[in-house]
Design brief:
The protein is 40% helix and 16% strand. Strands 1, 2, 3, 4, 5, 8, 9, 10, 11 and 12 form a ten-stranded mixed beta sheet that branches. Strands 6-7 form a two-stranded antiparallel ribbon. Helix 2 (58-70) packs across helix 4. The protein contains twelve helices and twelve strands. It is of the alpha/beta class. It has a single domain, classed as TIM Barrel (Alpha-Beta Barrel), CATH 3.20.20. It starts with 14 loop residues before the first helix and ends with a helix.
Length: 324
């Protein structure tokens, strides 16, 4: 039997050789760890649908962030759950709101930690939608003004980066203008540009206490069937001043990540969301797969697709593996 002159298996025969020719590499430098902060003190409440994740008060947040920093992870992404919610999301932009206090505490205790804040209103509204309601509809133009005010309050508290996630038309421009007019021209904006109306957000809604009280978010989050639309959304965000683009969720949207990588030269983030995390944890707990290997394979796939930044609840575990 005649074999081809080139035999691909020659370059797979041992681990050191595989390491030498590996095309895609995963590093702690790419990881961002999401955290959920709540009022009170000495609070560390498990999130039942996301094993290993917690709602934490500011004192525990600082301790957790120190561990994250010591693992070499460069950034955290903060979500806040206020004491009280109202129709107008007043807690989102309050000077002493939960995220504002958390940011200040983190920057005072761990100044070299990159603190990114999610800029949305769903955690703060009594109805659970991402903006101001006009009847049963989210009023786009009123909402983006509140998003701008919220982003500015985060920057004043010391946030290194803001990440608008409400999927409102014009939200990036509104946030960019609010920051610039407030004297924070150097604060970058990470845009949740292609955020889909996904079933994979279920555990997050428990963690952030942000499920809509009526209706759904399909009128502002994207249809999972569309990828051309994602490119249009990203093009608009670039024109409005986004510094980093994002695709969310990640695992079911690898094709969108790849298209975005080919279309744009800005840094690209992928959000490995709560449902993707929970599936791995549940399957591993049942013994159906090796949780650590599955985690690392998923994160590597996001890098291979083209993501520069990976926002993931696996961040600490992944960093521990990478540092072995």
């Amino acid at each position: 039997m005649q074999y081809p002159e080139y035999r691909p298996r020659r370059l797979r025969k041992n681990e050191n050789l595989r390491r030498l020719i590996r095309e895609t590499r995963l590093s702690v430098d790419s990881l961002v760890c999401p955290l959920f902060v709540v009022p009170g003190s000495k609070v560390k409440k498990p999130i039942t649908s996301m094993p290993g994740q917690f709602q934490v008060s500011v004192d525990h947040l600082v301790k957790e962030a120190a561990v994250i920093r010591d693992l070499g992870i460069p950034a955290v992404l903060l979500f806040g759950i206020p004491e009280k919610k109202d129709e107008l999301a007043g807690g989102a932009f309050a000077r002493k709101g939960i995220v504002q206090r958390a940011v200040s505490a983190l920057k005072e205790s761990i100044p070299d930690m990159m603190v990114i804040t999610d800029v949305c209103l769903c955690e703060y509204t009594s109805h659970g939608h991402c903006g101001m309601l006009d009847g049963d509809d989210v009023d786009n133009d009123t909402t983006i003004q509140v998003l701008g005010e919220t982003a500015l309050s985060h920057a004043r508290a010391g946030a290194d980066m803001v990440a608008p996630s409400a999927m409102m038309d014009g939200q990036i421009l509104a946030v960019r203008e609010a920051l610039d007019e407030g004297g924070y021209e150097s604060t970058p904006v990470m845009a949740y540009s292609a955020k889909y109306a996904s079933s994979f957000y279920g555990p997050f809604r428990e963690a952030a206490e942000s499920a809509p009280q009526r209706g759904d978010r399909k009128s502002y989050q994207m249809d999972p069937a569309n990828s051309d639309e994602a490119i249009r959304e990203m093009t608009l965000d670039v024109a409005e001043g986004a510094d980093i683009l994002m695709v969310k969720p990640a695992l079911a949207y690898l094709d969108v990540i790849r298209r975005a990588r080919e279309e744009f030269d800005l840094p690209l983030a992928a959000y490995n969301v709560s449902g993707e995390y929970a599936m791995v944890k549940a399957a591993a707990a049942m013994g159906h797969l090796d949780g650590e290997r599955a985690m690392m394979e998923i994160l590597l796939s996001l890098r291979r697709a083209g993501a520069d930044i990976i926002i993931t609840y696996h961040a600490k575990e992944a960093a521990e593996v990478l540092l072995k």
